[in-house]
Specification:
This protein is mainly β and about 130 residues long. Helices cover about 0% and strands about 50% of the residues. The chain contains no helices and eleven strands.
Length: about 130
């Protein structure tokens, strides 16, 4: 049974930092792209970042470029999201996801990801 478990969320002041982790179990995802998405109240789930299977290629939502960094450790079956210079508009539930059919494409559409974690809340105060 595949499980993705996010951790590291919390309450932080604007300008602060958080590091999210997503640990996968049940199978290895070392050959799959992994991504982070977020969903704010009343809004659709949106793409935040994606990393390819080897960690050499990434893609980001424009508004987080230069502030967020996605990385992965395949030995630990874990993907990370380092978030710096946080803003109140970053407040959301953050989800990690696995693209089980990557085919070398860094996808940004939630429906194309097969496995999802339960989410972790990130709240940025002014």
């Amino acid at each position: 049974q595949v499980q993705l478990v996010e951790s590291g969320g919390g309450l932080v002041q604007a300008g602060g930092s958080l590091r999210l982790s997503c640990a996968a179990s049940g199978r290895t995802f070392s050959t799959n792209n992994m991504g982070w998405f977020r969903q704010a109240p009343g809004k659709d789930r949106e793409f935040v970042a994606v990393v390819n299977w080897g960690g050499s290629r990434t893609n980001y939502l424009d508004s987080v470029k230069g502030r967020f960094t996605i990385s992965r450790d395949n030995a630990k079956n874990t993907v990370y999201l380092q978030m710096n210079s946080l803003r109140p508009e970053d407040t959301a539930i953050y989800y990690c996801a696995v693209d089980a059919h990557s085919f070398g494409i860094l996808k940004t559409t939630p429906v194309l990801y097969e496995y999802w974690g339960q989410g972790t809340q990130v709240t940025v105060s002014t």
